[in-house]
Amino acid sequence: YTLDGSEPTPQSNRFTGPFEVPVHKTVRAATFKGGRRISPVSTRSIVHF
C-alpha cells in the first residue's frame, strides 16, 4: 500500500496488520503475487476532522 497517493508496486509497504493514518491521506492498495499485480488498485481518501 501507499500513503502518498502513488500507485502501489511490489516494493511498496506490505500490509501486515492495522496501521494508523495520522493526517489527511490517500491510501492506495493492491494485491501482488510473484511480483505481478493480481488485483485492481483500491483507493480511499482518509479525512480527519
Report on this structure.
0% of the residues lie in helices and 29% in strands. It has 49 residues and is an all-beta fold. The chain has one domain (1-49). The strands form two sheets. A two-stranded antiparallel ribbon has the order 1-4. Strands 2-3 form a two-stranded antiparallel sheet. It is elongated, with a radius of gyration of 11 Å. The mean pLDDT is 95.
What is the CA-atom radius of gyration, in angstroms?
11 Å
* Tally of separate helices: 0
Helix/strand/pairing class, anyone?
A: mainly beta
Beta strand count: 4
Share of helix among residues? Answer: under 10%
Q: In whole angstroms, how far apart are the ends?
A: 23 Å
How many domain units? 1
Mean pLDDT figure: 95
Low-confidence stretches: none
In short:
The protein is mostly beta strands.
Search tags:
4 strands; two-stranded antiparallel ribbon; mainly beta; two-stranded antiparallel sheet; elongated; 29% strand; 0% helix; 49 residues
Layout of helices and strands:
Layout: E1 25-29, E2 32-33, E3 36-37, E4 42-46
Antiparallel strand pairs: 1-4, 2-3
